[in-house]
Specification:
Distance between the termini: 41 Å
Strand content: 15-25%
Largest sheet: 8 strands, mixed
Bound molecules: nicotinamide-adenine-dinucleotide
Oligomer: single chain
Length: 356
């Protein structure tokens, strides 16, 4: 049986654009039929990879065989490219961060709605297995109610590339990795943020942040630490979570980790004091071997559909988007608050858009 696939043109054939071409290659519903990049050298790479390169964006928009524009350019041009795409009657998949401000995103959504086209943002890290494992633990109460969630990505390579160093292109780590981690925490914890405090790092002397830390308090009692660092030669674990019955850690994307829970059957014995530095402590003495059980991480809860399958179903009117624009708006609003708290040093309340 042959089914017609939706024709996708990738705009911005750099690192992520070319990765998208690989991701879509085996998709049953979408097919990359061409690319457009402002750099001639990238156009050549596209042709070598087997994808015809359009000479101008106008030519892409005027091609009636194109159904979908996938935007994978630097962040500052997403909005303009998307507005033109909607005017030309195309659907849009847009890389994250979808744009640089709440107002810009509202303009994009209004333009998509007016044209009756779909705008879906590639928040692909909702599909990451490390995240889905924590989400499973949160939903299933594997170690009791999670009340503290620490989510970090740490590297030691500084800010990568060229445009990511520049404010005018929407550079900096909050708009880069930050948008993923903040999207994940809001996708998992269904509660209003009641307070936020953040710090941005400018250790490397760039005009944009080379990392940040945000502390979020949710109305349901969960507190979260979200941290991105590019100056960490010793990384902290990807996830560290505390629940009412135990503690969990995921070290890395290979899902190395464990959970340690209270052994309900063990007879409670007073810990014996240990030597700690120049003093003695009972409080910080390890539990006896019988007091805890060390176990494996649970199997992650998996989204039933891939990002691209879901997108295809949405444009065919068969499904709701997994990444909803209201959720993307809430994350952008949070990002603006993280910038503001970082700049002023103040703790912010009453800013969250909840429910999204
Ligand atoms: P990149 O610099 O490798 O590629 C960007 C490409 O866009 C370049 O080839 C550049 O010539 C081209 N370009 C610039 N302006 C253009 C325009 N007006 N029209 C057409 N082409 C244009 O950058 P990248 O790392 O591929 O990042 C691109 C986007 O993808 C960013 O928004 C980034 O945040 C996002 N991204 C997402 C993920 C993810 O996992 N979701 C990962 C990496 C990057």
């Amino acid at each position: 049986m042959t089914t017609t696939k939706h024709a996708v043109v990738i705009v911005g054939y750099g690192g992520m654009g070319s990765y998208h071409a690989k991701l879509i290659k085996d998709n049953d519903h979408l097919e990359v039929t061409g690319t457009y990049d402002i750099l001639e050298e990238r156009q050549k790479v596209s042709v070598q990879d087997g994808y015809p390169a359009y000479e101008s964006y106008e030519a892409v928009l005027n091609d009636s065989s194109v159904d979908v524009i996938l935007i994978a350019t630097p962040n500052d041009v997403h909005k303009d490219l998307a507005l033109q795409a909607f005017k030309a009657g195309k659907h849009v998949i847009c890389e994250k961060p979808v744009t640089l401000s709440v107002q810009d995103f509202k303009d994009m959504v209004a333009s998509a709605d007016e044209a009756g086209r779909v705008l879906m943002v590639h928040q692909n890290r909702r599909w990451d297995e490390d995240f889905l494992t924590i989400k499973q633990m949160y939903n299933e109460r594997t170690i009791g109610d999670l009340f503290r969630i620490e989510s970090r990505v740490h590297g030691a390579n500084g800010i990568p590339g060229d445009w990511r160093h520049m404010e005018k292109h929407g550079g900096g780590m909050l708009l880069d990795w930050g948008v993923h981690l903040l999207d994940q925490i809001l996708y998992m914890v269904d509660s209003r943020i009641t307070s936020l405090n953040s710090r941005l790092s400018f250790i490397l002397g760039d005009e944009v942040d080379d990392g940040f830390e945000a502390v979020l308090q949710f109305e349901n009692g969960v507190s979260a630490v979200i941290e991105v660092g590019t100056t960490n030669f010793i990384p902290l674990p990807r996830w560290y979570v505390k629940g009412t019955e135990g503690t969990g850690v995921i070290e890395d994307w290979a899902l190395n980790g464990r959970i340690v829970t209270r052994n309900q059957d063990a007879v409670k014995i007073e810990p014996t004091p240990i030597q700690a530095g120049v003093g003695l402590t009972k409080t910080m003495a390890p539990p006896s071997e019988e007091a805890t059980i060390t176990g494996a991480l649970p199997e992650p809860f998996r989204n039933p559909s891939s990002f691209f399958d879901n997108f295809a179903a949405v444009i065919e009117g068969k499904s709701e988007p997994i990444v909803k624009n209201e959720e993307v708006l809430r994350v952008l609003n949070l990002i603006e608050a993280v910038f503001e708290s970082g700049r002023t040093g103040e703790t912010l309340k009453d800013f969250d858009i909840y429910p999204a």
